[in-house]
């Protein structure tokens, strides 16, 4: 109760007195819930309505891959177009796409190829939402409140990721696919109406008419290369997502199956512990509002992630694995929020969209590679527990490297 009370005073009061932040938060809720529900619904439609289990991976790829590919283009757009306008159109167009899916389903014409096209379009347009949102946030709050504002947005994202599939499953059991599509469409269109109320008075530099979008992308890369702090953070994203996320996420179902009984209850307990840790870390970050020694804290938490993987590889009991996963989840959120704040505080406003999209793209892009690498190692008879041990050791060593060599990150406050 104490935590909730403090959080309500520092964060909820901030939202109440900052209408643009309030509308951005509400738009993020609508977007986050719609994505979670949509992903569940499209998978279930492929499995249960189309009976094309072997094509499930193609649909997931069609939704997620464009988000990686177009994220950088979304970053360029966020630097030269009103960010609130991008958020509005991203939500509205996705809402109309889902409405079109509903109409096709009503006349019995929503087949696999149409679903594939809609999935690709949905993911592509969604890619423009995130860099616009994350680069708009610093202009809506004071610098000293940025960590709390990021905590609010990240906490909301974690909650929508947790409850979205549950809501989707409930709606599917209650309303059928048509009802769920209508619900998603209403959510997105409502979010676009919230976006209309976000004031974005930033002075926009117009790009040269003869300058291509690829030149703007190159400018964003060069900007990151010239900043030791941003370069260290980008490398950290790559190492962390490649050696950490894949081993961690693929180990949870394997451990539930091989070590702890193999039932859905055991799997849900482990996944819930991890998700609860991420949510707790996001809330705690907003509560503490860390302003000093953030770089050192991030490095120590990276080493804590590595230690967590090592301990998880040898956890003999379900309750012990659940506690370790809870702590790992806390570490992830406690890293993400100060890192986002550091990037937003140290990046020029006219480059913010490209830098934020580049960080997101690097984070998302290396996760599928990590999954593929872990799958290849498991196919070659290397156990997931050994992979966890290797990944944890790499993260520990990388943390020591950052502590000794990356002074720009270590001294960041």
UniProtKB/TrEMBL annotation:
Aminoacyl-tRNA synthetase among keywords: no
Membrane association type: Multi-pass membrane protein
Tagged with keyword Transmembrane helix: yes
Cellular component terms (Gene Ontology): plasma membrane
Transmembrane segments: 21-40, 55-74, 86-107, 113-132, 152-174, 180-199, 229-249, 269-290, 297-315, 321-343, 355-378, 384-404
Domain Major facilitator superfamily (MFS) profile: 20-410
MF (Gene Ontology): transmembrane transporter activity
Domain of life: Bacteria
Alphabetical list of Pfam families matching this protein: MFS_1
PROSITE patterns per record: MFS
Keywords for this protein: Cell membrane, Membrane, Transmembrane, Transmembrane helix, Transport
Main location: membrane
SUPFAM superfamilies linked to this entry: MFS general substrate transporter (SSF103473)
Annotated localization: Cell membrane
Name of the molecule in the record: MFS transporter
């Amino acid at each position: 109760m104490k935590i909730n009370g403090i959080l309500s005073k520092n964060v909820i009061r901030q939202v109440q007195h900052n209408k643009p932040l309030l509308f951005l938060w509400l738009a993020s809720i609508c977007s986050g819930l719609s994505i979670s529900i949509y992903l569940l619904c499209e998978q279930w439609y492929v499995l249960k309505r189309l009976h094309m289990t072997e094509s499930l991976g193609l649909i997931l790829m069609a939704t997620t891959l464009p988000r990686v590919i177009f994220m950088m283009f979304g970053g360029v757009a966020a630097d030269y177009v009103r960010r609130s306008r991008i958020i509005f159109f991203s939500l509205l167009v996705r809402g109309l796409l889902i409405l079109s899916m509903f109409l096709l389903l009503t006349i019995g014409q929503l087949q696999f190829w149409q679903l594939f096209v809609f999935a690709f379009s949905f993911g592509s347009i969604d890619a423009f939402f995130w860099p616009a949102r994350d680069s708009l946030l610093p202009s809506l709050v004071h610098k000293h409140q940025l960590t709390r504002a990021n905590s609010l947005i990240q906490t909301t994202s974690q909650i929508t990721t947790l409850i979205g599939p549950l809501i989707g499953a409930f709606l599917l059991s209650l309303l059928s696919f048509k009802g769920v599509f209508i619900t998603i469409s209403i959510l997105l269109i409502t979010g676009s109406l919230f976006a209309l109320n976000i004031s974005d008075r930033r002075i926009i530099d117009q790009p040269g008419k003869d300058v291509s979008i690829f030149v703007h992308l190159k400018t964003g890369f060069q900007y990151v290369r010239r900043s030791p702090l941003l370069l260290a953070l980008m490398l950290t994203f790559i190492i962390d997502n490649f050696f950490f996320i894949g081993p961690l996420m693929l180990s949870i179902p394997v451990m539930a199956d091989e070590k702890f009984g193999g039932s859905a209850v055991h799997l849900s307990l482990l996944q819930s512990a991890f998700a609860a840790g991420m949510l707790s870390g996001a809330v705690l970050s907003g509560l503490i509002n860390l302003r000093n020694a953030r770089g050192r804290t991030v490095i120590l938490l990276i080493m804590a992630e590595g230690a967590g993987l090592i301990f998880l590889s040898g956890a003999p009991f379900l309750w012990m694995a659940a506690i370790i996963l809870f702590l790992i989840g806390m570490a992830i959120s406690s890293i993400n929020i100060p890192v986002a704040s550091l990037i937003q505080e140290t990046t020029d406003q006219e480059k913010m969209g490209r830098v934020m999209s580049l960080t997101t793209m690097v984070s998302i892009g290396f996760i599928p590679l990590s999954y593929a690498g872990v799958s290849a190692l498991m196919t070659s008879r290397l156990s997931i527990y050994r992979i966890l041990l290797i990944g944890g050791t790499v993260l520990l060593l990388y943390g020591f490297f950052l502590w000794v060599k990356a002074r720009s990150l270590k001294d960041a406050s």
